[in-house]
Every structure is written in C-alpha cells, then in structure tokens.
Design goal:
The complex is a heterodimer. Chain A is about 60% helix and about 15% strand. Chain A is of the alpha+beta class. In chain A, helix 1 runs antiparallel to helix 2. Chain A is rod-shaped and about 90 Å long. The two termini of chain A are about 45 Å apart. In chain B, helix 1 runs antiparallel to helix 2. Chain B has a two-stranded antiparallel sheet with strand order 1-2. The model of chain B has no long low-confidence stretch (mean pLDDT about 90). Chain B starts with 6 loop residues before the first helix and ends in a 6-residue tail after the last helix. The chains are: A alpha+beta, B mainly alpha.
Chain lengths: ~160, ~120
Amino acid sequence: MAGKPGKESQLLSQRQLQELSARYQQMQSQAEALSQQVNMLQITIRDVETALTTVVALKDETAGKETLVPIGFGSFVNAKLTNPDKIIVGIGAGVSVEKNVDDAKSLLDNRKEELTKYHEKLNENLTKFVQELQNIQAIMQQQAQLHQMQQGQQPQQPMRAG
Amino acid sequence: MSSELPPQIQNQIAQLQQIQQQAQAIAVQKNQVEVTLKETELAFEELDKLDVDAVVYRAVGDLMIKTDRDKTKETLQEKKDTIGLRLQTLARQEERIQKRFTQLQEQLKQAVGTPDVQ
C-alpha cells in the first residue's frame, strides 16, 4: 500500500480499506492540530515583530517624552517616558529582565529567528501531511472506480429496457 | 460482527475505554507539566547569564514586582523542584495505568478467544 496510487490496480480488502480510512481520519485531525499550531506561531512571531519595532523606534527618544500606554480595547492613559534606554523583556515563567536597548533587541531577534525556524519546520510537516492525505484520497478514489468496474463486469447489472 | 456481546465482555470493553481516557488525560497533563518545566529551566538559564545586580521583575497577577536575580533564581529553583516531583508522580501514574490497560486487554483477548482481534 506504500507505493504510488497510480500503478496499483488490485482491489483492496474490506479490512485494508477500513484501515486506510481510519488512517486518513487520524492524519486529518493531526493535520488540523498542526495547522492550528502554525497559526498560533504566526501570531507569536507578529507579536515579537511588534516588540522589535517598538524597541527600535524608542531608541532615538529621550526621557520625558509624552506617550500613551494602552490599557486595552483601544484605550490609553497618558504617560511620560522615564527610561527609554531600558527595556523589560519577559524570559518566561513569569520572570522579566531589564535590558538595555541593544541587548533587548538581540534577544528579541534571536527569539524571532527561533520561532521562524520552528514555523518553517511545522509548515513543512504540514505540507507532508497534506500530501499524504491526498495520496490516500487518490487510492480511495481509485478503489471506488475499480469496485464499480468489477461490479459492471458481473452479469447482475440490471438490463435497461430500450 | 453484529451479534450481541456477552454483558461481561461489554463491561470489560467499557472499562478498557475508560482506562484509555484516563491514560489520555494523564498524557495531556504530563505534557503541560513538561512544557512548564522546560520554560522554567530556560528562564533559570537566562537568569544565570545576568550580572548579580541585574534588575529583574516577577509577575504577580497583572503587576510586575521588582526583585533581584538571586532571589528569583531561588524561586525558580523551588518551582523547578516542585514541577519535577509532579512530573515524576504523573509518570508513575502513567506507567500504572498503562499496565492496567495491557492487563485488561489480555483478559479481554482471552475472553473473546480470538488472539488476533484487536
């Protein structure tokens, strides 16, 4: 069953077909989970990019600059920059660390790179899954055709009145 | 195939399914705990790279409270230990439930009498 769908022309047994169908369903749900993960990663990557843009933009600002701090739902409070040269970066487990702009930038850059690599890897996996799903689909279609043909050869086909 | 199964075997199948669900629930939990442990370890490593007088904040709900590196390292070490223990417990549970599953599966196979039925 591992071969190409095109050259295999014998009928699979009922059991083999069931196995194939079960495999298809399993792979489909795996592919869905994978696709969700890919989307989440995409969002995270965009989040890192936002942080990076802000860090870079703040680099040239001086202390005392007026700014607005988001409090959610498109709303803001007024604030003044006190330490534009210090960035506080989350390192996971509820811990954040104060870094200077260059260190913060390189940390975020690294994070972005890692995430992008992972994203690519997952995307590759997803493509493989989709290909395999298509393969199985092709086999199943071919089986359906074979089945029909075999039934057509049998004399039990109803005669059609002219 | 469609013949009625004896109640005893139906019962065993139900038990097997229940155990399978339990095993899945534990696997999910274990996975979550593993992720948390990994995250804590990474944060700990990151702290290790800092100077002793680095400014560190700990999230308390929505607030960030200023602390220092060593205090945070201590907290994270404790957290690592606790999570590690929890992971061990879950691993043991998983093993136990796996054994129970195999055992029941064997019983069921024997009861059904056909060794190659899955």
